[in-house]
Amino acid sequence: MSQFSESIASHYHQRTKYAPETIAQKGKSLDWANQPQPFKEYKIGQVIELNPYLSQSTAAIDVAYSDHWIRLSLLLLYSYGLTAQLTTIYGDSMYLRAAPSAGGLYPAEIYLISRGTPWLPAGLYNYQVQTHSLVHFWQDRVWQDLQNACFANEEILAASEIAIVTTGIFARSAWRYEDRAYRRICLDTGHLLGNIELSASINGYQAFFLGGFNDKAVNKLLYLDESEEGATTVIPLIDLLDYTSLPDLPYSHSLPSSIDTKYPSIPDGELLSYLHQATKIDSSPVSTPNPDLATNSLEDKYNFPFCTKISTADAKFIDWGEDFSELENTILERRSTRNYSGAEIKIEQLIALLNFTYQPEAYSDQGLDPAPDYFALEFIETFIAVSGVSGLEEGCYYYAPKAQELRQIRFKNFRKELHYLCLGQDLGKNASAIVFHTADLEQAIAKYGDRAYRYLHLDAGHLGQRLNLAAIRLGLGVSGIGGFFDDLVNQVLGIPEAEAVIYLTTLGVPGK
Ligand SMILES: Cc1cc2nc3c(=O)[nH]c(=O)nc-3n(C[C@H](O)[C@H](O)[C@H](O)COP(=O)(O)O)c2cc1C
Fold first, then answer.
1. Does the beta carbon of 23 lie inside 6 Å of ligand 1?
2. Which of 2, 176, 318, 510 lies 20 to 30 Å from 269 when distance is taken between CA atoms?
3. Confidence at residue 4, expressed as pLDDT on a 0 to 100 scale
4. Distance from residue 40's CA to the centre of ligand 1 (Å)
5. 224-238 pLDDT tens trace
6. 188 C-alpha to center of ligand 1: Å?
7. 457 lines ligand 1 (CB under 6 A)
8. For 18-32, what is the mean pLDDT?
9. Alpha-carbon distance 210 to 125, whole Å?
């Protein structure tokens, strides 16, 4: 056992695993009368409607800086705006958003901080998803405080005028998923980051994802009740229209936290909150035992000399349309597939999806960010269970992103097992392929402290959103799965034991 196996992040991961023996105790009945609201309300503040800026034609209205408003309005809509309204069996409305969310609980909130520009007065704004508006709830200048809270990232903040902060409201997700909800809050936020990254490109911004910041300072700045809500990322947005070429600004997207090995005995129901507090960075970033771990490796982590290898280098490009028109449509039309037919997808489709997700530099010609920010990507590995992909043998594969190849590690049709591993969900059985994101948690903690837990889940969600959008654009079905029998996945699929399974993305042909 390594010296870090007792960290709070490892402990949390272990304690929140689903296993066949204990799953029955985890699922208590839902308290419908006390479900937290998925929208945040402000009693005071000036409301700024963003709907008038949704299409170029209506923006012909004679407003100063309307181009800035259009870009901001679209950026927020494509990131997290409402994209569907459903009626529940009780006759209530349920709203779905541009980013998927486990159980449709939407724990993430978006805030906007303005330095104070001619078009956007200084202060704090909350994005009101339901009405597609901003509420300007604090009008003083806070940019310097934000800059101070972001430690080593002054230059990025000095070059930006606005920044997004994402937060998580824990109870929204914990209401259903209890302590394991922290995983889903970070995964959900990662999906949101995927949308923010792409929507920024569409609208002429460069988004910088900062995962390391002084939590207390950022939470205080936003007037958050820290026991209920916490900042998860700070995202300075650089306006690309201000630059002919973007200067090379140094920044550090993932600072380490300490490693907490002296935690008390934590009762069920308090573990999520304890983990979040323990992964905070306080007054200044700490040094961890292995700050350089896994940074510059040119090799993929796993190689199996005699296994079948399939090159994915010759991928068909996904066309995101002139002026990103198809990307915009895809973001607005994306839905999680509720059932698959079980039919096969094509190997070219799978390869195209992988190429878009893991080789973003191949998309710089289309104007997308060639190197989107991730926090701890060097620790994330990808395994794919193939049940129905024409031209590809059934089994389990390791995807080697550097060599750009699939390396087969198991030869078997796993549909029955996958159904079980996904807690009996039919999505698992009928998917054509399931992408598993995994990470060596202990190594990641050795580099980034307990905060690695946030980073890995944010990254897996971010990758998941790229898979989602690529699948929808190719006419395929797609859905995340956050509930699975953790250790059994490794055992059944042959994924090395050191790899903690973090997230699943199912892919397939949508059923009727
Ligand atoms: C982290 C995460 C985990 C999810 N887990 C499941 C799951 O286990 N089973 C499922 O059917 N859908 C799952 N979903 C899909 C959500 O149910 C879906 O996103 C939500 O209902 C909103 O619908 P939409 O994605 O169509 O906008 C998951 C989504 C995310 C982001």
1. no
2. 2
3. 42
4. 21
5. 999 999 999 999 999
6. 9
7. no
8. 88
9. 19
The pLDDT tens digits for 292-322 are 888 778 899 999 888 899 999 999 999 999 9
Residue 3 CB burial class (10 angstroms; 0-12, 13-18, ≥19): exposed
DSSP 70-138: HHHHHHHHHHH-EEEEEE-TTS-EEEEESS--GGG---EEEEEEE---SSS-SEEEEEETTTTEEEEEE
What is the residue-wise DSSP string for 369-386? -SS---SSGGGEEEEEEE
| Lowest-confidence region among 4-18, 48-62, 189-203 | 48-62
- The length of the chain in residues reads 512
* Substitution candidate for ligand 1 out of 186, 419, 465, 479 with most atoms within 8 A of CB: 479
DSSP state of 241: G
Decide the pairing of beta strands 93-97 and 82-87: antiparallel
CB distance 483 to ligand 1 below 6 Å:
yes
Expressed in angstroms and rounded, the spacing between residue 107 Cα and the centre of ligand 1 is: 13
- Both tokens of 108, joined, read 């993430």
Closest CA to ligand 1's atom 19: 100
pLDDT band at 157 (very low <50, low <70, confident <90, very high): very high
First to last CA, the chain: 49
Q: Which amino acid is at 15?
A: R
Cβ-contact 317, 362 below 8 angstroms: yes
pLDDT, greater one: 59 or 509: 509
Q: With contact defined as beta carbons under 8 Å apart, do 501 and 485 qualify?
A: no
- Which of 96, 336, 456, 463 gets mutated to test ligand 1 (max ligand atoms within 8 A of its CB)? 336
> What's the gap in Å between 151 CA and the centre of ligand 1?
35
Domains in the chain, please, with CATH? Answer: 45-251 (3.40.109.10), 290-508 (3.40.109.10)
DSSP string, 169-198: EHHHHHHHHGGGHHHHHHHHHHHHHHHHHH
Q: Is the CB of 191 under 6 A from ligand 1?
A: yes
Binding site membership of 336 for ligand 1 (Cβ less than 6 Å)? yes
Using alpha carbons, list the distances in angstroms from residue 501 to 3, 486, 487: 21, 6, 8
Question: Distance (Å, rounded) from C-alpha 386 to C-alpha 171?
Answer: 36
* Predicted TM-score of the model (pTM): 0.97
Pairing of strands 205-207, 162-169: unpaired
Q: Is 195 in the pocket of ligand 1 (CB under 6 A)?
A: no
Does residue 3 register a pLDDT over 50?
Answer: no
